[in-house]
Structures are given as C-alpha cells and as structure tokens.
Amino acid sequence: MKRISINPITRLEGHGHIEIFLDEAGNVANTYFQVPELRGFERFCVGRPAEDMPGITDRICGVCPEAHHMAATKALDRLFDADPPSAAKKLRELLYMAFYVTDHTTHFYALGGPDFIVGPDAPPAERNLLGVVRKVGLDTGKKVIDCRARNFEVIRMLGGRSIHPTGGVPGGWSKPLSEEERQRIEQIARENIEFSHFTLKAFDALVLGNEKFAKMISSKAYTHETYSLGTVDANNQANFYDGQLRIVAPDGEEFAKFPVADYAQHIAERVEPWTYLKFPYLKKIGWRGFVDGPESGVYSATPLARLNVSDGMATPQAQQEYERFYKTFGKKRIGKRFAPVHHHLATHWARLIEMLYASEHMLELATDAEITATETRRIPTHVAGVGIGSVEAPRGTLIHQYEADERGILTAVNLIVGTTNNHAAISMSIKRAAESLIRAGKVVEEGLLNRIEMAFRLYDPCLSCATHSLPGTMPLEVNLRNSRGEVVHTIRREG
Amino acid sequence: MKQRRKIAIYWASSCGGCEIAFANLHEKLLVADEHFELVFCPCLVDTKVEDVERMADRGIAITLFNGAIRTDGNEEMAHLMRRKSELLIAYGACAMSGAIPALSNLHSRDNHFQAVYRENATIDNPAGAQPQASTAVPEGVLVLPRFHAAVKNLVQVVDVDYSIPGCPPESTQLWKILEALIAGTPLPAKGSVLGAGSSTCCDECKRERKKKTIQRFYRTFEIIPDTQKCLLEQGILCMGVVTRDGCGALCPQVNMPCIGCYGAPEGVDDQGAKMVAAIGSVLDIGEYKGMTEEQIRERTDAVIDTLPDLAGTFYKFSLGRTLPEGKAQ
C-alpha cells in the first residue's frame, strides 16, 4: 500500500499532519488528519480559582481570545449564579461584535480570501495579505488594516487589552462605558457597515462573478450533507453571544434545540489513539465514522452552519444578504428559513454576511440608551457548583463547562472548542479533496496541494485552539511513500 | 528596493497572540515591510523549515521566537533558529518563562490524559483509548510526537540574546524595538530585556497608593473596587508591584488586577517569592498580643484562605522557570 504524508507546516513544526493511503489500484483507501499536540488546559485549570478562567482561557488562542473570554465569563455567571445587569450583557456583546468584524476581516483578506482574490493557481508567495494588496491595490490594503486597527481599539477600550482582554467577571463586566467612548464606537460601527458592504461587493466581483470559482463552490468535492449546529435567539435568528443551541438535519428539519446547559445530552466526543484532538459528534445519532448524511452524527459548526440553523438574520441589511445567499443556490424556504446549503466553500460568503450582521448589531448596541449605564456588575452570593457557558466563536460553537467546590476552586473543566466541532468534517473534506485528485495512482501535483489547502481553509480552522497553526498560508510538502516507507516522490510547493 | 534585513517569527507551543501583536503594528506593518524581509513565519509566509535549514548560519538578522518548549520538535526548532540567527530574541512570556502553558507543570502527563481523554463530561471512550506514539490502523502505522512531562522556556534550551516580555508584548513596544533597529541604535548588553522598563507596573499605574495596610484579600468577584485607589490596597491581589513595567498598566485601567504577564522587574529572579514578601508588607492581621498561639494560627489561616491558589496566582507566568521539571511522574 502506498502512502502520502502531508505535513502542513512540516514535520518538525508538527502542528498538523495528513496521511493519505492508496490502495493497490492507486486510489485513495483512507486519509487521516492528525493533530500532534495537546496543551492540556482541561487538566491544568483544575485547582485554579474559577474567576481566573476568562484570563487563563484567553491564552488558549491568541487569534480568538475574545471568544474564550466570553464563554468563560458566561460559564462563571452560572457557576456563581449571578445574572449580570442588562448593560453588562450589552457591553460584552458590543466587544464581541467588534471582535467578529476584525476576525472575519482577517480571514477574508489574509487567510482564506487570497485563494479567490489572487487565485488558487497563483504562486504561493503571492497568496497572502501582501499579494492581496498588490492585486487589489494599496487603498484596499489600507482599508483592511484600518478595519482591524479600529476594532482592536474597541476591544481595548472595553477589555483593557487589545489581545487577551480582561474585564469579564461573574455577574458582569469590570468597567462601564463612558459617553465619549460610546461616540467613538458608534462611529467605528458605521465604518464597519460600510466596509462590510465593500467586502461583499468584492466577493461578488471576484468570486461569484468568476465562473470557475462559482462552479468550484457548488462542486461535489466541497459538498458534505451534514447536520448543522449554531446558536439562535428567541426568534430563531442567528446570535453569536447568547441564545439556544439549535441543530438542523441535513434536509433542513430542526433536529434539536436546547439550552447549552444540556449540551452533554447532545454532544459526545470520540477519542482516537492516532490524534491528540477529539472528535465531537451528535450523541443521539451516534458515531458512524467519517461519513455524511442523516445517519451519521458528524456535524459542522461554521458560519455556513449558523446560517443553516437560523430563521434569518436579526438586522435588516444582513437579512437581505441572507435571502440572496439562499436564493442564489436555489434553496426552498422551510418556514422562515431555507433548506440548508451544503457547499462548504460557501462558508466564505456566509462569513461576510455574518460580518455585516456584526457591524449592524454593533451599531444597535452602540446607540442603545442603556449601554453607558454605570451598573455593570452584580456581586455573587454563592457558588452553584456547575457552570456551563457558550458563545458562537467565529469558527464554531464554543462551550466551557466548569465544576467547582464551595470556595469556587475548579474541580473539573470541559471545553468544546469551535474548530474541534469541525474536526470530523475537516477530515472528510480532506479525504474528498484527495479522492477527487488522486485516481489510479496519478497525483495532480499543484492541484492536490491547493485543493487540500482550500478544503482546509474554508473552515478557517483556528488550530491555535488545538494546535495553534494558522493554515492560511500553509507551506506544504507531500511525500509519496512505498509500503516500506521510502519516499518515492516528493511534491513541494515552493514558498 | 534597498537591501532589507531578514527577520523571522517562529511559534513553538503558543497561542498565536504574539503573531497577532505583530499583525497589530497595523499601518506600521507597511513601514516594517520596507525595512525587513519576513523570511520565515509559518502563519504569514510560506517558507518551510527545509528552506531555513538551507539558509546561511547567522543569515537571519533577527528571530522573534515565541511559545514555550513542550515537544522535541519545539526544542529542535529552538536550536535551528539559534544557529541561523544573528540575534535570537525570546519574544513574549511563554518563551521567557513558560507562562500559561507551564501551568501544566503542576500536573503529571498521565493526569492530563486521564482528564482529557477518559473523565471529561462529554467523553465517549469505553475502551479507554488515548493517544499513542504509534498506532496500527488497517492501512499502516500512524505516529504522534510524545507529550513531554514538563514545559520549558526558550532560555533553558538555547543561548538567547534578548527577551521581550508580555503576554503578548504590546505592539507599541515591539514597534519601538523595530524602530531602533531600523535607526541602527546600538543595542543594550546581551541578555537585556527589550520593550519594557526596569521598574514595576505600579510606576505606570494611575491609581493612588497610600501605603495602606489590609486585613484580608478579596477575590475579584467579591467586591467592586474603587476606580481611583490602588487595587492591592483594596485587598485585591494585584501583581503589579512585582511585575515589570512596559504595558502601560492596562488591566488596572479596567478595574482588574495585574496578573504578572510582563514577568519580574529588573534584579528580581523569583516573581512569586517577591510577591510573598510584598504581601508581608501590606498585610496587617491586627492586634495579636494576648492571643493564644492557636488563635493567632486561626487568624493567619483565615487570611491565607483568602488566597486559594498560591502557585497559580504568584507563578501564573513563571512556572516554566520555577518548576522546569514539572511534577514528578
């Protein structure tokens, strides 16, 4: 049996690893996506004071610390049984919307977008932010930089620090917002709305307007009919900060809707001896391996999945884009929502619709009369014992569960991280891409590398959370080995 | 374009926040790009380790190495980057002192596996599977690098020229360093800390200090602190007094205590021990004349109870230095 090893960031760095096995006929027998690292937060947080968790779990990921900070803080609200004042919830959500805008911007222009903007066949050296700037011009490059800068300014204003913010306390937020700060944030939110439209137009022109890309999006290679998971508000519209978790079946029917406190009844994690990262799946369906369809417990939790579970967006401009999205793919309505889109490459588009929603909602929050209220904390009176909190991280539903003794010292910690939800789906996408490119032992060289990267990237896999790699510009090397493990052929994408 | 100096940014066991701190140079990125050629940075450019191996020894002018040393791979990269770099800089708290990943040194490896793969709330693992160095699958054998017993920092593994503290280092401080390098300003003595002061976080803090003593500590969720007064003097365990200045005292500005991410100030080796001494000078357990030994012990214990996690609080960012071998297996 032949074997192909792909080290996304090479063996020595070891943050992610793909093994492809070929059968005797030279077709793909199986693929394995291995995560070769564990940092062990679930263990070493035990013994820590629970209130330290927003600050400790920030450090799971420097790319999305805000998501961990919020999930941790919300878990603490429950652990200490202290419902925050309304203004505190709004402040948290305001910071969170700024984070969404900057994070989705980074993905579109620096990580995933270069595939489309400079093209999947462009030299790898061009497929990065600077290549994007060269392609679209310095003015756009500056817009991207400005967008990131102004939203990090908001994060710092509210959270003290622009990376690894602080501010989350059980029962509230540590600092109220001044009127002067509010005015600045209002202005930033308006600029974000404008920038979101600019980016959606760019997507229209560069991707949807390009026949090759449009075809690629709806091709089988990037289509998986899985369950979708996301958070919805009381109107079943998408929400990133709070609500109930909703699972929609591959055909679009609601499969389950529950408060996050019940998550362990719905999600289980499988352990495989060949990877450090676990595989979450739907407990009531069961684990059937790396396959899609209604019989398989594999689900995805991505911007696309969030749209699929939602009866629309809670802001008017994003709602228009949401409808355009489903109509473009010819999807029928199911009540207020549409039949799910399963073309996973469309996740890039879904992400931009979310960016518009985050911008609009940021403006709503920044102009909310209550946002400058000075009461932002409620002092807890006791420890409830268990606290479970979740948010929609940009890369998927993020769940923190804490158990603590009567002093609030942690005795158990369970974390289901955004990207981890998609571990099985990512593995399947890699296999599908490999199958579509390797036939009878014939390897399409550059195509294999690009397509596997694209299958990876659409999930925006923030492996920081698990392996802390940002595979946006993954250096790739493929070794074709014979059954004795000798390298018979090497494909290398030069940097 | 004129000759640009080669710069590399490498991450070992880290969260990526140090890279974001670099990306958050924002508009200065374009200026940095004029003067430096980013020759290796796995999250931003496509160069591979093999390409680095082919570079001349000391051919990279500056390497900013972030992250802790958790695996053989991290350690090999530390040696490679040392060999290839004129200046190797421990960039950020993990590379300097292990930081948050080194909290793992309080537990054994088996202990980690038990929690993560066998005991946690959502685990479905009746057969007790856990990651193996080598696994036979139907198609062949899959291998994984070993999970080491303890986390180390860069300084314990290779010779380091300078360190930049912070979790992550503030982008404004990083820019000052790059500006100095661009201007050709002579660097301080080898081993110095760059991008920070030599005093303590308190020097940058706007809060008012009155040398007031306290009777007990409060955990952050227990009180709403006054916005103008020193947090430590309100009984909140703020590490600012034993933490190097350089960040601008950001956390206290939002009413949260310093957690010590900039490490110990100049001349202090053990940040935690220094904090114990600092607490001694601020704590006043009250009149104890005439009390029995037992009463004094009870009162002392009551104060200590308000500090429930000494290791995780005093050494949150320096366990890699303090417990480099980790907990005994």
Strands of chain A, total number: 20
Q: Helix tally of chain A?
A: 17
Mean of pLDDT of chain B: 89
- The CATH topology of the largest domain in chain B turns out to be Rossmann fold
Number of separate helices of chain B: 12
* Coarse morphology of chain A: globular
What are the segments of chain B in which pLDDT stays under 50 over at least 5 consecutive residues? none
Q: Give the CA-based shape of chain B.
A: globular
Structural class category of chain B: alpha/beta
**Count of all domains of chain B:** 3
Q: Give a quick account of the main beta sheet of chain B: strands, pairing sense, barrel closure.
A: 5 strands, parallel
Strand order across the largest sheet of chain B: 2-1-3-4-8
The value of Rg of chain B in angstroms is: 23 Å
Q: What fraction of residues of chain A sit in β-strands?
A: 15-25%
Largest sheet of chain A: 5 strands, antiparallel
CATH superfamily of the largest domain in chain B: NADH:ubiquinone oxidoreductase-like, 20kDa subunit
What structural class results from the helix and strand content of chain A?
A: alpha+beta
Oligomeric state of shown chains = heterodimer
Helix share bin of chain B: 25-40%
Looking at the overall shape, the CATH architecture of the largest domain in chain B is 3-Layer(aba) Sandwich
Question: Would you give an account of this structure?
Answer:
The complex is a heterodimer of chains A (495) and B (329). Chain A has helices spanning 10-13, 41-44, 53-57, 65-79, 86-111, 114-117, 129-136, 138-159, 179-208, 211-217, 263-266, 303-309, 316-328, 347-366, 418-421, 423-437, 445-457; strands at 2-6, 17-22, 28-34, 168-169, 172-173, 227-232, 244-248, 254-258, 267-270, 279-282, 299-300, 333-334, 337-338, 386-393, 396-404, 410-416, 438-439, 442-443, 477-481, 487-492. Chain A is α+β, with helices and mostly antiparallel strands and 495 residues long. In chain A, the strands form seven sheets. In chain A, strands 3-2-1-19-20 form a five-stranded antiparallel β-sheet. A four-stranded mixed β-sheet of chain A has the order 8-7-6-11. In chain A, helix 7 (129-136) packs across helix 8 (138-159), helix 9 (179-208) packs antiparallel against helix 14 (347-366) and helix 12 crosses helix 14 (347-366). Chain A is globular and about 65 Å long. Chain B is an alpha/beta fold and 329 residues long. Chain B has three domains: 5-100 and 149-183, NADH:ubiquinone oxidoreductase-like, 20kDa subunit (Rossmann fold), CATH 3.40.50; 112-143, no CATH class; 201-322, no CATH class. Chain B has helices at residues 17-23, 28-35, 49-54, 72-84, 93-97, 109-119, 171-183, 250-253, 271-282, 293-305, 310-314, 319-322, and strands spanning 5-11, 36-40, 60-66, 85-91, 123-124, 134-137, 140-143, 162-164. A five-stranded parallel β-sheet of chain B has the order 2-1-3-4-8. In chain B, strands 6-7 form a two-stranded antiparallel ribbon. Chain B starts with a strand and ends in a 7-residue tail after the last helix.
